[in-house]
From TrEMBL:
Organism this protein belongs to: Aegilops tauschii subsp. strangulata (Goatgrass)
Cofactor binding annotation: Binds 1 heme b (iron(II)-protoporphyrin IX) group per subunit.
Sites annotated Transition state stabilizer: R53
Broad enzyme group: oxidoreductase
A cellular-component GO term for this protein: extracellular region
Secreted found in the keyword field: yes
Name of the protein described by the UniProt record: Peroxidase
Main location: secreted
EC number: 1.11.1.7
Domain of life per record: Eukaryota
Active site: H57 (proton acceptor)
Residues that hold heme b according to the record: H186
Length: 314
């Protein structure tokens, strides 16, 4: 599925990531990324959540390698990940990444990977909405391949139960605690009715008043209202706080997979701790984001610094 090797390809995967990786080669990188993300959030605050999710959906497929950014190539055998079931008509923010890449190329041409840009954009989207900030380890390279099959198999579905969620994260060397902390990303952003219809109509571990509220804009019979949006966190949908966990304790999780974290099993105690302690959540979230951001491409993968995030260098 890849292309021929080009002069800046290499075979080392990530090597050691470091927050200071571009300090000499692109000293204005972080300022440039933050300025562009700030502008995007001024136009639409929800984009902070979208950029966070984009990085997550990148990292869970072949590691954090920018593979999600590659477009399908018409008339060739190259198929990207954008049309995979968890991504199609759902992942957003590609244009913001393009804009950041353009802005970064002006100051440091050919230096910064699209994968690193996605990681920085996720951090900035989080912190600009009131969430924690963290030093993002840098030095990722961009893939020359994408993997639609892995996107379909490895991105956790909203229908998963707790065991399935723990297994999906364990496959990426992430612990149950990481799973519960990273799920707190659902304190911002929106989801489509087709993702939570089963939970609001069929599950019993849901506050009846909350189910009724969500049913108003999400009809029982698919495909009616499939793409109708609802906030993950009713109170503060665009503030990165710990309200997500208070919602779970009140049985107001939007997705089946959300409520599974507080449903009489292993993560209940941690959910209660996060609900009571915003600082603990913020610190665990930052730690888990760094851990997820360290997911490397498979050994021996051919990587490069893409000139255009959507296409492998020719």
């Amino acid at each position: 599925m890849g292309s021929g090797a080009s002069d800046n390809d290499n075979f080392i995967g990530h090597g050691q990531l470091s927050p200071s990786f571009y300090d000499k080669s692109c000293p204005t990188l972080q300022r440039t990324v933050r300025a562009t993300v700030t502008k995007a959030l001024r136009a639409e605050r929800r984009m902070g959540a979208s950029l966070l999710r984009l990085h997550f959906h990148d990292c869970f497929v072949q590691g954090c390698d920018g593979s999600i950014l590659l477009d399908d190539v018409a008339g060739s055998s190259f198929v990207g990940e954008k049309t995979a079931f968890p991504n199609v008509n759902s992942v957003r923010g590609y244009e913001v990444i393009d804009q950041i890449k353009k802005d970064v190329e002006l100051v440091c041409p050919g230096v910064v990977s699209c994968a690193d840009i996605a990681a920085l954009a996720a951090r900035d989207g989080t912190s600009l909405l009131g969430g924690p900030s963290w030093a993002v380890p840098l030095g990722r390279q961009d893939s020359t391949t994408a993997n639609m099959m892995e996107a379909n198999s490895d991105l956790p579905a909203p229908s998963l139960n707790l065991d399935g969620l723990i297994a999906a994260f364990a496959k990426k060397q992430l612990s149950p605690r990481d799973l519960t902390a990273l799920s707190g990303a659902h304190t911002i952003g929106f989801s489509q009715c087709q993702n939570f219809r089963g939970h609001i109509y069929n599950d019993t571990n849901i506050d009846p008043a909350f189910a009724t509220l969500r049913q108003r804009t999400c009809p029982a019979a698919a495909p009616n209202g499939d793409t109708s949006l609802a906030p993950f966190d009713v109170q503060t949908p665009l503030v990165f706080d710990n309200a997500y966990y208070r919602n779970l304790v009140a049985r107001r999780g939007l997705l089946h997979s959300d409520q599974e974290l507080f449903n009489g099993a292993s993560q209940d105690a941690l959910v209660s701790q996060y609900a009571a302690n915003r600082a603990l959540f913020a610190s665990d979230f930052a730690t888990a984001m760094i851990k997820m951001g360290n997911l490397a491409p498979p050994t021996g993968a051919v990587t490069q610094i893409r000139r255009n995030c959507r296409v492998v260098n020719s």
